[in-house]
Predict the structure.
Amino acid sequence: MKNQNTSRWDFGRFAKTITYFDVIPFLGCLQRLYQKKQIKRDKNMGIILVAGATGGVGRRVVSYLVKNHYPVRALVRDKVKAEAILAPEVELFEGDITIPETLTSQLMDRVSTIICCTGTRVQPVEGDTPNREKYYQGLKFYLPEVVDTPEIVEYRGIENLVKTAVDSKSLRVGERLLFDFSNPTLDLKNTWGAVDDIVMGGVSQSSLRLVNQSGLFLGNVSTANSGGFASVRTRNFNPPWDLSPYEGIELRVKGDGKRYKLILRSEGKWDGIGYCYSFDTVYDFWQTLRVPFQDLIPVFRAKTVPDAGYFDPSKVYSMQLMLSKFEYDGVLNPKFQPGPFSLGIESIKAYGGKPTPQFILISSAGVTRVGRPGINLEEEPPIVRMNDQLGGILTWKLRGEEVVRNSGLTYTIIRPCALTEKPGDKVLLADQGDTIKGEVSREAIAQLCIEAMERPEATNKTFEVRETRDKGTTNWGNLFTNLS
Ligand SMILES: NC(=O)c1ccc[n+]([C@@H]2O[C@H](COP(=O)([O-])OP(=O)(O)OC[C@H]3O[C@@H](n4cnc5c(N)ncnc54)[C@H](OP(=O)(O)O)[C@@H]3O)[C@@H](O)[C@H]2O)c1
């Protein structure tokens, strides 16, 4: 008679699992070639909002972000114009910083960082070409005039944008959004796959579905054929994630009263040591759970490995969520029951990191020189000399800076010297005290913004910047660390 606790094993599903996860790498490559799917990894740190994205600096900031796979939302005044300038993957949001009604809460939805490159429109008195070549080329001096009112753009506009950000409460400090199941992307679907006890002869079945603005790890777990676990696991991150600046992983989940495990791996092997943490869920209730890296237990094939040491968050290769009959070393999961299960997942974040800038503002060198005692205006750049004729542009830029500094948001305020359209291949020099003069390419300023974005040492700093004569790469770590 057939043993009641045996069922027909599904070789097809087994083969699919090992192929999906590249357990036999060659097969995985073939499959992906066949499917023509490119596995591209998002930076998953939340959306980066770029204001002034159609401008000389803004469009370059967007281009760097896109190249590095950051999700980007561009705040633009004219979508049609923006479509012609920006890459198609950029999400466009039509709005005007001087019109608060256009800055709705959706603008800040899931935004982690704002890079603000807006500025009062300046043009030669004699007029510019449609693509603003005279303004951009920066070689010849054209007598400038402002088109908009600096008070409205540089001060009130910044005030409106900052207020929208603060009110939204979406910009959280010291955390990194790793998986946002409330906003599913193709990338998310291509990253997670089922690993059930089929890999050991069992018949449990699970999947990760994306429904109703959340992920759902659901299936049926069976103890037939000596099985008893179902799980979903990510493909290996390539390169592995460096989560060493953080304390642990935060899960936002809605369970069914069962006990699940989170498993992280700091090696690329399919069958290596997994670092586990068991967590209990409450039936039909959203919970925020924090899993400190140091509380993860090293486990190899369900047996603990006390000598393995602490989990190394500097190279996180994969993540896994599991429902298993067993806890560790043969002990049973006290909340386990065979049958259907479901775990809703809204997000997976890294928490406990040092603050990085939430608001990066492009201001201007010279903002504190206007009216400074002892200043020789003859030796100052035109923007300082002509501040009054230009509607007090620097005066209002300084007021805008103050709004950012007093907002409670973490910030970096970059004050470039004269902007050029040159390649941006020179080493940058940053300084404080607002005395330096010179020029700097828009390309280099865009890169500086991206570098500041993820660096705690750039947080809450205001500084001027110009190019040196030396070609080469700037040591970004030193540039920020040397500033007070
Ligand atoms: N030129 C220099 O030598 C120099 C030196 C130091 C600092 N800066 C400052 O550096 C920043 C970037 O310069 P840039 O050359 O990239 O400037 P830009 O090309 O003139 O770009 C300004 C951007 O701001 C946007 N903008 C203006 N008013 C807006 C509003 N009310 N709402 C939303 N967006 C608005 C513009 O959008 P539209 O495309 O819709 O007009 C444009 O995308 C500016 O703040 C500038 O003042 C310039």
